[in-house]
Every structure is written in structure tokens, then in C-alpha cells.
Amino acid sequence: MATHVIVLAAGEGKRMRSDLPKVAHPLAGVSLLGWVLGAAGSLGADSTVVVVGQDEDQVRPLLPEGARVTRQEEQLGTAHATGIGVEALERIDPDDVVVVLYGDVPLLTPETLRSLASLGPEDTARLVTADLEDPTGYGRVIRDGNGRIAEVVEDRDCTPEQRELTEVNAGIYAIRAGPLLESLGKVDAENSQGEYYLTDVVGILASKGDRLEAVKASAEEVSGINSQDQLAGAGRELRRRINYSLMESGVWMLDPERTYIDETVTVEPGARIYPGVHLEGSTTVAAGATVGPEVFAVDSTIGAGSTVWYSVLRGAQVGEDCEVGPYASLRPGTVLERGSKIGTFVEAKNTVMGEGAKANHLTYLGDADVGARSNIGAGVVTVNYDGVEKSRTEIGEDAFIGSDTMLVAPVRIGDRASTGAGSVITNDVPDDALAIERSEQKEIPGYSQRREARKAAKRAED
């Protein structure tokens, strides 16, 4: 007996008011569809089919390897979409289990899905239900006098009495393939929307006396996303799950409600995370690192024992025992080797800081290689762009770059070399040398008295 997964993802999501397909909206680093497929991955399904609509080109890149796409050209309802999905399955047996999910229900857990798909020998189908304080908009689960599921009635088709019921259908099913195919052929569109409802399959199976079981889930878990505010609400819950999972593993967080970590991020046990931290993409934080307060890091690494605070990292690599910030900006290609430092109001791009090198404040390092233990003074700029092309600056080991030095690339500063403050260096500096480039200082005696006299004369004239 095989298990197959069909994910219905053809909805247009008009209430999102976005150019993105609804299921492509990102949530804690993963698309809505990605969260659903991730949970479904726990089933170890033999095949997975995603039913898409007009936005196929935008949805297809979101799919994991092995998932297939089929297209619903006309939006004729969930039963119609499910039928298209079943047609796309290969080598299906009547006893196989077909799990039908929606691509906009990102809070569904693997535990619930495993319970759903675990049909007993006598079970024809299982469906996920939940008890809601306000069930408006959801199909109601109708039970017979013996408590068995008799049918599901869509909200818009409910009688006043049925609308009072609080047990709702989440639209998530596990049905044996044979009965599913047979029932889909009997579904009609005689309802207020003129659509083919997948919920009608429940009534058809129940009327035959087939055994239907409910898997109860929380209201939160079965919530679908139809608007930007619902997307934000689901994001809060997913971040809560991510943060508490990390804390259970040994990550310290001062305030998890003000910490924003994507599902795609790796934070090792023993790391310390302060409020206002945003970690996105492929970012990794090693054990013993301290991040925050107020750090944004995307696709970056932060090594063991390093501290990063009040800073922005984009595609940067911070090695072990480094310090970044406050108010530093590390742009793509920046690499900090062990024990190096990028300090206050320093920007680095495509730059390698050697072991123990320091740029403590007010500096721009672009396209540069800074040798081990070298010190970069305040106000230093690597002038890397001449308006046509960019060039590199090379600074040797144990070098000292005086404050307010302009290093006009391409240029090399040798090992143990120094530059005088305020210099504009355009030529290479040999090892051990001091380079100074300044105009001769001149003094003009009595200048201030003459200036004040000119001011007084001007005031008298006015």
C-alpha cells in the first residue's frame, strides 16, 4: 500500500493584493507552499503532486526535488482540482492512501499529518477537524445520532441550525484511492457557487456506510492564509515554534518574542541571542557567539566566540573570536579571520581582514586584503573605484594605516609599513617604510585680527 500527496495550490489569493501567487508568499524564510510540503515530507509519500493555476511559472521553483506539477486551467472547485491531481499520480492502487492538502495552511504539523494518513484496515477516510469559537467561513461537520460523520456542509450552504455547529472541516483528507475516484465521479455542482466541492465526497462515502474518522487539530493549526494580516499572524506562530525549539536545544534568548529567525537559519546550542535580531537565509551562528541587540544578518556566518551587535551583515563571514559593531555594515564578500575587528561606523565590502586585524571606527574598506594584526585608523578609505573599474588594495601584516589616509587602488602597503595621518597614497609602500603625503604647512601671522577688521568694516558699511 502506497501513500500519495496532492496539494491544492491553484487559488489566486486576490485578498492578498499582491503580484505573488498566494502560496509563494514567504513566511519565516519558507514559502507557504514550502511549509505544507515540509510537513507532508514526514509521510515519506511515494509521489507528490501540486495542482497549480495560472501562476505555474512562479510556483514551480518552490517545489522540492521529486514533486510534480499539474495544472488546473479552470477554477471549478476543490473536487475538480483533486481529480486533476489524481490523474497525475502514477501507479495508483485502489487501497493506496491519497492525502489531500491545501497550499495555504502553513501551521499544519507533521504529527497531525502522520495521524491523518495512518488509516486502519477498516477506515475508508480520515479528515482533519477543529472546534472554532467563530466557525464563519468553514464547512461544518455534520454527525449522525451515533456520533459518526455523516457529511460536511459548506458555510454558504448551511441551514441556520447547521451554522450554530462549531466543529469545522479543515479540508484536509486521507482517503483510499478507490473510494476517492468513485466518489469524485459522483460530485455535482448543484450549490450556491456552482462548483465541485471536495467536501461532498465525505457525504457520498458516509451514505455508503464507509467508515470515516476525524483527526482533531487546534484552530490555530488549520488556519488558512487569505490576507496579509493572516500571513503576519501565521509568521508569529512559526517564529515562536522556531525560537522555542532553539531554546530547547540550548540557545539562550533574552526575549524570544522580539527575535526573528528563519527556518533556514542554523543556530548552535550555546549561542546567545539578544532582542531585535533578524537572522535570514543561510545564516549560521556558532556555539558561544553573541548576536545582538539589533542585528540583521542574511546569508552570513558568525563564528564561535564572536560578538556582533547593532550591525548589518549581508553575505559576510565572521570567523571565531571576532567583534563586529556597533553600527557596522558588512557587505557581500567580507571575511573576518580569527580575532579581527570591524568597529563603529565601519563599512567593508569584498574585503578580507586577516587574523587579529582591526578597523575600529569611521572607515570604508572596499576590495581590500588586510594582513594579520594590521591596524586601520579612523577615517581611512580604500579608494577602490575610478569611475570605470574597481581595483584592490593590499595591506601587509603588522601595518599601521594612519587616520584619514586615502589608499588609492590599485596599491600595496608592505608588511610593517605605516602611513602618516591625512595622506593620499597612490604608490606602493615598501615593507617597513613610512609613507607621508602632505603639503607643507604654512602659518599667516595676524590673520584673525585682519579677518575681524574686515567683518567690522562690512557691518559699518551695512
Indicate the topology:
Blueprint: E1 3-9, E2 26-27, E3 30-31, H1 32-40, E4 47-52, H2 56-59, E5 68-71, H3 78-88, E6 97-102, H4 110-117, E7 125-131, E8 139-143, E9 149-153, H5 160-163, E10 167-176, H6 177-184, H7 199-207, E11 212-216, H8 228-249, E12 252-253, E13 259-261, E14 266-267, E15 272-273, E16 277-280, E17 284-285, E18 290-291, E19 295-298, E20 301-302, E21 307-308, E22 311-314, E23 317-318, E24 323-324, E25 329-330, E26 335-336, E27 341-349, E28 352-353, E29 358-366, E30 368-370, E31 375-376, E32 381-383, E33 393-395, E34 400-401, E35 406-408, E36 411-413, E37 418-419, E38 424-425, E39 434-435, H9 447-461
Parallel strand pairs: 1-4, 1-6, 4-5, 7-11, 12-15, 13-16, 14-17, 15-18, 16-19, 17-20, 18-21, 19-22, 20-23, 21-24, 22-25, 23-26, 24-27, 25-27, 26-28, 27-29, 28-30, 29-31, 30-33, 31-34, 32-35, 33-36, 34-37, 35-38, 37-39
Antiparallel strand pairs: 2-3, 6-10, 7-10, 8-9, 8-10
